[in-house]
């Protein structure tokens, strides 16, 4: 669930000039311990600016066999700014459709689960690569893309991962809220394991984000040395 992490960071910054080790520390602590910040809700916000784009995603979900799953608010940095999230789930594909709305923006993403450490996320959010993600969490960011385009790119990314690794989509243990908490906690703890992580925020926000945006799963797997399987050996006469 990439946009939760990215928007926590954006809310904490308020502008590049405010970047400091203190802000990075607070952001990563929020990621590493998110449990008390997720608040389930029964109805979507009444704000038309949220409801209109959400209805478009809802219609797409119904047309593509995604069932209504969960709605919740995420308290961004205990600052009284809430990030609204709604999810739909396609159980057969082990894939979630996620709609986010916060700070005047909204985004959508598709997330397919393979195991506790491996997933593919495809999003139209430019902020998706603001913070690093742990190995095995493959994030494709294509800013401005519509849901049909995101769907096609997501399918391509999933097929690439499956072809190169032999992994297959798998149902996640526990509910969606548990999945979100585990993903954020894992990301927060991974960032804390990076030497000098408190001082790398500006580099992540500018250089890393620019480098990673538009890079698909195939490119990311290449960086780990996981390439396309070669042709099967042919039998030779002895």
TrEMBL record:
<protein>
    <submittedName>
        <fullName>Uncharacterized protein</fullName>
    </submittedName>
</protein>
